[in-house]
């Protein structure tokens, strides 16, 4: 029998389907699912405007000058920079909310270095989902984030770099390194249903089902 409180965190390379897998696992287990909703909830609790939070979501506190599409997790606007203070406030608010979640109902949390944030919390299972870049590019095009495979590969590479920089900045681990997670899954090898089967079976075995 599963414990009354547990959290499944999912790190993911862009286009690997990590978010879809997280949603599927949450639906099959009948537990809550948080990705961008985590951002919204944290923003509401901290009293910040959601657009301000989206600008700091999974972003290291340094000046960047680019246009970042919403599909990558950020608000779509051209901007000139960010301060360390504002990024840290965004990150702290997210961390506080993730700890609140862990103290409440079972849930799945996607991204936001949740595995590290909840490292001292019991009953947390950390998963990383990845796939070869060409497979990720196909998925990105299929979900209409880009029109061509070349654009999709470029988008995936840029997004993965941003996610890695964010994770590596705020943790003492390396994004995507197997030692940082309980399970690392190549989403190109099996269907989402089969991958969900593996994760759910692991959870049952881990918690002594």
Task: Give a verbal description of the structure.
- This protein is α/β, with parallel strands linked by helices.
- It has one domain: Rossmann fold.
- Helices cover 48% and strands 11% of the residues.
- The protein has a 5-stranded parallel β-sheet with strand order 2-3-1-4-5, with helices on both faces.
What class, by secondary structure content? Answer: alpha/beta
Largest sheet: 5 strands, parallel
CATH topology: Rossmann fold
Mean pLDDT, to the nearest integer, reads 84
What is the CATH C level class, in words? Alpha Beta
* Total count of domains: 1
What shape does the CA trace take? globular
**What's the order of the H and E elements?**
EHEHHHEHEHHEH
Give the assembly state of these chains.
single chain
Number of helices: 8
C-alpha termini separation: 5 Å
User: What is the helix content?
Assistant: 40-55%
CATH architectural name = 3-Layer(aba) Sandwich
Q: Runs with pLDDT <50, length 5+?
A: 63-83
Helices, strands, pairings?
Elements: E1 7-12, H1 18-29, E2 32-34, H2 36-46, H3 50-56, H4 84-103, E3 107-110, H5 114-117, E4 124-130, H6 133-142, H7 149-170, E5 183-186, H8 192-206
Give the tags.
single chain; alpha/beta; Rossmann fold; 209 residues; 5 strands; five-stranded parallel β-sheet; globular
């Amino acid at each position: 029998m599963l414990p009354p409180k547990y959290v499944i965190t999912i790190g993911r390379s862009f286009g690997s389907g990590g978010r879809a897998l997280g949603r599927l696992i949450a639906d099959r287990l009948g537990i809550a699912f948080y990705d961008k909703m985590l951002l919204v909830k944290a923003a509401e609790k901290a009293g910040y405007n959601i657009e301000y939070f989206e600008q700091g979501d999974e972003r290291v506190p340094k000046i960047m000058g680019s246009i970042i599409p919403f599909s990558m997790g950020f608000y779509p606007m051209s901007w000139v920079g960010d301060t360390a203070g504002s990024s840290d406030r965004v990150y702290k608010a997210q961390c506080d909310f993730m700890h609140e979640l862990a103290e409440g109902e079972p849930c799945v949390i996607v991204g936001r270095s949740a595995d590290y944030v909840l490292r001292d919390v019991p009953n947390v299972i950390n998963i990383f989902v990845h796939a070869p870049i060409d497979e990720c590019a196909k998925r990105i095009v299929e979900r209409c984030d880009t029109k061509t495979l070349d654009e999709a590969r470029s988008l995936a590479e840029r997004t993965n770099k941003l996610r890695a920089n964010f994770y590596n900045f705020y943790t003492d681990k390396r994004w995507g390194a197997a030692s940082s997670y309980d399970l690392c899954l190549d989403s190109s090898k099996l269907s989402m249903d089969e991958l969900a089967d593996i994760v759910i079976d692991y959870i049952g075995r881990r918690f002594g089902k």
